[in-house]
Hints:
15 helices; Aspartate Aminotransferase, domain 1
Amino acid sequence: MSLIKQNIKDLLPSSTLLINEKCKDMAKDGKKIYQFGFGQSPFPVPKKIIKALQINAYQKDYLPSKGLLKLRKSISNFLTKKGYLNLNHENIIIGPGSKELMFLLQIVFDGEIILPVPSWVSYAPQAIIAKNKFHWIETNKGSNWHVTPEDIDKIVSKIQSRNKLIILNSPNNPSGTNIHLLKELGEVFTKHNITVLSDEIYSELYFKNNYKSISHFHENTIVSSSLSKWAGAGGWRVGYFAVPNNLIEIFEKLAVLGTETFSAVSSPTQFAAITAYDEDHSEYLNKSKKILKVISNYIYEQLKKINVDIKKPEGGFYLMPDFTKLLNKKFKNSKIFCKILLDETGVAVLPGTDFGFSPHKLIFRLSYVDFNGTAFLKVNDQDITEKNLIIYAPKIVDGIKEIVNFTKKYS
Length: 411
């Protein structure tokens, strides 16, 4: 008799963490690896924030489970300055990364979950663990790989529960694209009384400077983010939810579950995070975004030259090429495609099936972070060019050449 609950028997480790460990093992065995599978910021944590952590290393007491009050106020002020409305610092909760808070939300929420295809790899497994019924919405390149109001109208007719939660991620992991129909989606979410979890973990890495949140257009929106991506502090595990007043019931139960699970986020990192949200890091961010944009444009152009179907990224550090038209006669599914690519070239990417796509679509996520971010940030602005990527991001250039040559070989 199994000791494992039925609903989690078939769950596997998170594919993003698994690919990272696999690449480490292959590199130890002497194989040259292009690590395009794991989505970790290549840039160092800003010096001001590191200094704040050093100063607060002595902090040892348990903090309130909801989070340090001063940090919650800092986040509220940070978001208010960016145009977010109706924010109340009392309704902000700090978690050990936003991932844990998302999981607790899935535990709390009584209803059905709507997930766009593509979606981040952990949304669906969390729904399975929480025993939530979930529905996929297929998207396409024409809609920028995001849901449309028409998609929502269709899916709600299949949902029996009064309560519906959709998880949106913009800029998107894995496609790197942004939601463009915010006003229209806000209207349809309101019409159907849909609660939105807006995963905005890459919003500070939007290549333009006019990022807009779905929360500006739909009141029942929980905003989620963290230090992981924009501040390069994934291992610090400091994330937050900002919950609107009319979803206070959800906030209160998240806080209760926090007391019974993670208790409180690390004290030194919470104190350091105040500096992350209070201080101006625009120089660091602007340079980071410029580097990422130059790299993404380079990869986009190289793949377009060989007729790969791809949308130009708009933020974050991912892009999502579709090789179906080019290679569907050579490979049965995306997992086999990615495995052979890794075995033959050392290029590690994640197959589209990890993000909800059907196996026959030869899509993968490419994370373009395999370069020395510390060294690249020291380069003069005028030297951040595609021509200089061979100097400052050689593994990106070489890895893309491997993908191009692999594609030509099998086309």
